[in-house]
Description:
Blueprint: E1 2-6, H1 13-21, E2 38-43, H2 47-56, E3 60-62, E4 65-70, H3 85-93, E5 97-103, H4 119-149, H5 156-170, H6 182-189, E6 199-204, H7 217-229, E7 232-236, H8 238-245, H9 249-258, H10 265-277, E8 279-284, E9 289-296, H11 301-308, H12 310-314, E10 316-323, H13 324-329, H14 334-339, E11 344-346, E12 356-362
Parallel strand pairs: 1-4, 1-5, 3-9, 5-6, 6-7
Antiparallel strand pairs: 2-4, 8-9, 10-11, 10-12
Helix pairs in contact: 1-8, 4-5
Amino acid sequence: xxxxxxxxxxxxxxxxxxxxxxxxxxxxxxxxxxxxxxxxxxxxxxxxxxxxxxxxxxxxxxxxxxxxxxxxxxxxxxxxxxxxxxxxxxxxxxxxxxxxxxxxxxxxxxxxxxxxxxxxxxxxxxxxxxxxxxxxxxxxxxxxxxxxxxxxxxxxxxxxxxxxxxxxxxxxxxxxxxxxxxxxxxxxxxxxxxxxxxxxxxxxxxxxxxxxxxxxxxxxxxxxxxxxxxxxxxxxxxxxxxxxxxxxxxxxxxxxxxxxxxxxxxxxxxxxxxxxxxxxxxxxxxxxxxxxxxxxxxxxxxxxxxxxxxxxxxxxxxxxxxxxxxxxxxxxxxxxxxxxxxxxxxxxxxxxxxxxxxxxxxxx
Length: 364
């Protein structure tokens, strides 16, 4: 899973990236200190594989991972090349989802590129640049497709989708608000358009505001806007995330508790990403390794097996599956769970569920 972190300059984007990836990207108080996208690979927190690793005395614990791309700060006019905008927009095309960091704090020592704090204005600036870039691409494609569809009628469904997209963009709305059939959605996905990508808004607040999130008017505005796009909102303090990242693992929970927080911003972001992209994890466990595998919801057992190796998918015979909670309830004793009928034999039609602990049987 690749997530691209975007935002106007000086909104806390690189500070947040540094904190959640420990990558040490430069975070300076001036625009465009990030030019090439920094990439950080982050393990997805999942206590289930740690527990399975203990039970099976696994030599390796392998979590699912997310790649975060810290993409340089966009500015108004990016779609016309302002601030190296075209280069930055190209980087966004490579990611599966956008993480848009929005400044929701006051601080006279940190210059805002627009001179004042207004999260809705900031969101609009970024979204308009993404939409303008999409509109330019679609208008070129519309002209070519209209001509080609006169002799090739199979292009008419594509032409219809393009026209719908152009209409929505001209109305000033992102393509993620477009209501399409599954068939139309497949066509849209093939265009790799920017404003159609799922988005998570990160409302970045100050450390002082962490105890009064519900009283932050900037955060309220972001949440209200996100509802119009079906987007996720995660409220974090990049400052606090930076402090957490510098603590030993065993001190982080206590630090969060002292602040009245139940989980870190990274944990919140991971959960929001999984919800937004419709992802789940299945688990494999044994002495060599315990591992979490990320798949889309409604993935069949053979397709899930293909995540491990294409040969397992090709030679798939059956899947032996037990729910994680059932396995733990029996102390990890698979034999005991089998006696209770909790280990299921599933075939090619089985749809995987989150937390399935699975052993695939296959022909070599």
